[in-house]
Amino acid sequence: MSSYQSINPANNQLLKSWPSHDEAAVSHALDVADRLFHSSWSKGEIQPRLQVLKKLADLIDSRAEELATIASKEMGKLIGQSRGEVKICSQIARYYAENAERILQPQSYPSELGEAWVEYHPIGVLVAVEPWNFPYYQLMRVLAPNLALGNPVLAKHANIVPHCADVFEKLVREAGAPEGAWTNLFISTDQVADLIADDRVQGVALTGSERAGSAVAEQAGKHLKKSTLELGGNDVFVVLDDADLDEAVRQGVQARLSNCGQVCTAAKRFILHEKIADRFISQFSAALSSATLGDPLDEKTTLGPLSSADARDRLVKQVDEAVTHGAKLVTGGKAVEGAGCFYQPTILTGITPDNPAYYQEFFGPVAQIYVVGDDNAAVALANDSHYGLGGSVWTRDTARGRKLASAIETGMVFINSQSDTSAELPFGGVKRSGYGRELSDLGIKEFANQKLVVVAG
Ligand SMILES: NC(=O)C1=CN([C@@H]2O[C@H](COP(=O)(O)OP(=O)(O)OC[C@H]3O[C@@H](n4cnc5c(N)ncnc54)[C@H](O)[C@@H]3O)[C@@H](O)[C@H]2O)C=CC1
Ligand SMILES: CCCCCC(=O)O
Fold it and tell me: Smallest Cα–Cα separation from 311: which of 122, 161, 93, 147?
């Protein structure tokens, strides 16, 4: 049985099984990608590559509804959110089409040694290992900067989104990219390890769990290959006593329920100032529990299914364990009976540091609530985490918000907004959330040879 299957998580219907790629197909893909790297396509003028990105952006825009529907059917994202994901993918492609040449201009380094500059070159074939939660965005975050720079990519997508993986590859070719620029491979984790070990592969980008990140980074390290990791997060949503409470509740519900809570930068730990905690919890709980569960393709649905039965079962176990160890359920706490992988919107309070849930990420519609007495306690609690991805702070005093944002140990902090992403802004974290940055001028240089050239004075 193929390990790549499209199964609709709203009704458990098998849509399609996809044949895996065998050793010959993988070997051929690597040969073609490596040949492309050594060709004028990768090492020559940038503009032909940027024209492909511009065409890709236009293609994505023209087929947005088709692409959004494929994703919603395959991993359960609400159709409106899938449209949003498709839109940001064309934004990323267009951003690099319009900015990569400027970003990759040689950078002068005044030096006593003489005229010195850094120029940016592709390093070779990369492997991209990506998750199901943003089935197009995760791919575009790797494709766009590396196609602009000239690194060919072999992509291993998550096993539950093969249709998204397949249609993405076809779009890239239709946009004019040569064979080898972006190759989707339905392969096993062992085959990923073999690719990383191959001398023609120069780096690997992974987004996914700590488990996968640790395994892939170990393989990359063993073979001295550059890697970037975008892993899990346990992001805080800090609401201070002077916050706009209605807006904080409105965005807090979105930040927890979007994509059924399966977002690495979703608001997961709500840290509330004691002066507003009761009001926030009352409004937040009422709004969260009034979510309309249903088919993600139905515009009236506000909470779809989890991406798979495994994801649902993992969440059931995690919440049950939290309650067994003393957490209190304010609302929810159970899977929804019947077809599909649905889980009730849930709020947990009373989680103490000895509860396993205290340090765990809940990758689903489960909010943890904590109450603190002041800003220092909020920062201390926010930083008491193995993760360091994103977070948000809500206060009408921007200076106060900036102070907390600087003190919170993560890669990204938003003030008076839920976490978000945009092509021109770097994305990434610290601690067990991984390392490296994607998007912006930082992302395009992660897999560049930043070569120093000096003309002796
Ligand atoms: N940082 C982020 O944006 C995301 C983080 N996650 C984290 O991952 C957790 C589970 O999501 P999953 O998709 O199941 O993540 P996962 O880590 O199992 O899968 C992510 C990708 O890594 C691949 N993979 C897994 N183990 C591998 C190995 N040993 N060698 C090579 N490739 C391997 C998978 O096939 C998939 O393509 C979530 O709970 C969340 O914490 C998931 C999605 C996005
Ligand atoms: C729109 C926010 C993107 C979050 C990226 C992630 O969860 O992998």
Answer: 161
Minimal-distance CA residue to ligand 1 atom 13:
131
Any idea what DSSP says for residue 111? B
Give the Å distance between the CA of 108 and the centre of ligand 1. Answer: 39
Is 75 within 8 Å of 160 (Cβ atoms)?
Answer: yes
Are residues 429 and 410 in contact, defined by beta-carbon separation less than 8 angstroms?
Answer: yes
**Strands, E assignment, 294-418:** 328-331, 346-349, 366-372, 387-388, 391-394, 414-415
Known catalytic membership, residue 321: no
**Assembly ipTM:** 0.95
The whole-model pTM stands at 0.97
CATH fold group of domain 236-415: Aldehyde Dehydrogenase; Chain A, domain 2 (3.40.309)
Q: Which ligand number lies closest to the CA of residue 436? A: 1
Task: Assign 2 a pLDDT band (cuts: 50, 70, 90).
Answer: confident
Is there an atom of ligand 2 within 6 Å of 307 CB? no
Q: How many CB atoms lie within 10 A of CB 368?
A: 27
**Could you identify the residue written with the tokens 């959004």?**
68
Cβ(72) to ligand 2 under 6 A? Answer: no
**What number of other Cβ atoms are within 10 A of residue 128's Cβ?**
24
Residue 31 pLDDT > 80: yes
Classified by CATH at the fold level, domain 4-231+431-456 comes out as Aldehyde Dehydrogenase; Chain A, domain 1 (3.40.605)
pLDDT tops 90 at residue 443: yes
Distance 420 CA to ligand 2 centre (A): 8
Selecting among 230, 361, 438, 446, the annotated active-site residue is 230
Q: Which of 263, 261, 268, 253 is nearest to 342 (CA)?
A: 261
Report the interhelical angle of 23-37 vs 189-197 (nearest 10°).
Answer: 40
The residues lining ligand 1, judged by C-beta closer than 6 Å to any ligand atom, are 129-133, 156-159, 189, 192, 207-209, 211-212, 215-216, 230-232, 264, 361, 363
CA 378 to chain centroid, in Å, comes to 26
- Spans of all domains in the chain: 4-231+431-456, 236-415
Ligand nearest to the CA of 232: 1
CA of 265 to the centre of ligand 2 (A): 6
* pLDDT band for position 1 (cuts 50, 70, 90): low
* Nearest ligand by distance to the CA of 387: 1
CB of residue 440 inside a 6 A radius of ligand 2: no
Instruction: Give residues with Cβ within 8 angstroms of 22, minimum separation 6.
Output: none
Instruction: Determine the distance from the C-alpha atom of residue 212 to the mean position of all C-alpha atoms in its chain, rounded to a whole number.
Output: 14
